[in-house]
Amino acid sequence: MIAEADDKDILGIRIAVCGSSCAGLSYQMGLEAEARAGDAVIHCDDVIVFIDEDSKPLLNGTCVDFCESPTVTGFVFDNPNNCSACGNRKSCGI
């Protein structure tokens, strides 16, 4: 995605938590040209990931992977902090 971006100033990907619902946390991803104040900047192989200050604790320990299968195509977030708002804490190990 970064190599194919029209904007050649793109340095990496921003990942943010943009809300929570009964289904759990919602995520937002986008291409980014630079870090913002307070960002965590993570270098993963050839990719730079930017995470804003509010999202840092919610993404701690999260594994992000790109999957292509008959049932799922896209980014998948395996987040140990993703407890649903409905009180189903079984998936959180609590």
Shape: globular
Unreliable spans: 87-94
Specify the helix fraction band.
under 10%
Largest sheet: 4 strands, mixed
Question: What order do the strands of the largest sheet run in, or round the barrel if closed?
Answer: 2-1-4-3
Corresponding CATH architecture: Sandwich
Q: What is the radius of gyration computed over CA atoms, rounded to a whole number of angstroms? A: 15 Å
Percent strand: 35-45%
CATH class: Mainly Beta
CATH topology type: Hypothetical Protein Aq_1857, Chain: A
Question: Helix tally?
Answer: 1
Brief overview:
The protein has 1 helix and 6 strands; from the N terminus they run ββββαββ. It has 94 residues and is mainly beta.
Provide a descriptive summary of the structure in words.
The protein has a single domain, classed as Hypothetical Protein Aq_1857, Chain: A (Sandwich), CATH 2.60.300.12. A four-stranded mixed sheet has the order 2-1-4-3. A two-stranded antiparallel ribbon has the order 5-6. It has 94 residues and is mostly beta strands. The chain contains one helix and six strands, in the order E-E-E-E-H-E-E. The N and C termini lie far apart (37 Å).
How is the topology of this model organized?
Elements: E1 12-21, E2 24-32, E3 40-44, E4 47-51, H1 56-59, E5 63-68, E6 73-78
Parallel strand pairs: 1-4
Antiparallel strand pairs: 1-2, 3-4, 5-6
Brief descriptors of the model:
globular; 44% strand; four-stranded mixed β-sheet; mainly beta; Hypothetical Protein Aq_1857, Chain: A; 94 residues
